Amino acid sequence: MSAFRTDGGLRIGITIGLGAEGESLWVNGIKQNAIYLAEALKHVEGVASVVLVNTTAVAITPALPWDLQRWPAVAFDAAKDALDVLIELGGQVSAQQTAYLKERGTRLVSYCCGSEYVSVMESVMFGRPMFGYELFVNPRYDAVWVIPQVAGNSLHFFRTLRRREPRIVPFVWDPVLLVQAAQALPGGGEYRPRTGARRLSVMEPNHDVVKFCLYPILIAEEAYRAAPGLVGMLHVTNAEHLATHSAEFIALMNQLSLVRDHKAAFVGRYDTPQFLSAATDVVISHQWDNPLNYAYLEACWQGYPLVHNAALCSDLGYFYPGNDVQAGCARLLEALDTHDAGHDTYRHRQRQAMSRYLPGQRALTQAYGELLHGLMQAPLT
């Protein structure tokens, strides 16, 4: 019997796919997503335990950068005999593993939190290998759950390939990891007013067309042309490779006054809390059909002005619609001019608005309770 097994109530596992024993939580959002979902499910009546289930050969050790007492992690083989539900989120289970789980009556859920249609499309069209000829699409899911921000581009992709009717489920976020990462930073990493010209940051991952840096750079450029004395520096993270190896990106950037006046720097990857605290006064963002993500919530929770076009959280930060660079510029100039005077009120208001995503929030807990009830009542596939 596994150490985490509890008599009575649902025993739930959520998959992760570790790449290294001490892999950072800030490499991508997948492990954070698993932790936040685990925290949310703990609040559901009838859930006895939630564990993170690693599907790779990487060992579970104290090097993991999270509290293993609060969020226990185990290898698949250690978990497989003590689960009522396995939610496949950050690591895939094989056909053989699926068959074993099904023999024991375990429900299997596909939890979809990525813009997979876009990733596959770009892989096919632009020679970015993903799975080659060895694609395994599990035909034995009992449910497919999709978070709202990826439903627009990927829900119907999931429906056909995974042969199940998807359900759009509540988005979950928790500031716990952000607070832990920021606790050693000055002022807990929260925004503090500064005098003089401001430091603008663009922190898009630049992996694909969904979250790319070009429009935020153009918004910063328009603001610099309108009020050059307000802009001290523009930092674009996750862009060093573009500024070094992409002739097209270099040519575009050389058209900008920010670049010509040596007011822009294209740098590598940084953990969000550290970069916000060390180098940021305003965050400028843009997304294409992925209108909600952790980076927005991290910036707003810490009180940083966020200029963004994410319609699912338009009540946060300084929202502009679509691809409207001029509207984005107006919101940026507004933030530069007015934010400091009300920064404490802003931070409080942001946190109140984000309460809808937090584990333990009543409607969110009820929704996941209903999903689990329906899952367990349906026939096993």
From TrEMBL:
* Matching Pfam families: DUF2827 (PF10933)
Q: Do you know which InterPro entries this protein is assigned to?
A: DUF2827 (IPR021234)
- Which protein is depicted? DUF2827 domain-containing protein
* Organism of this sequence: Ramlibacter albus
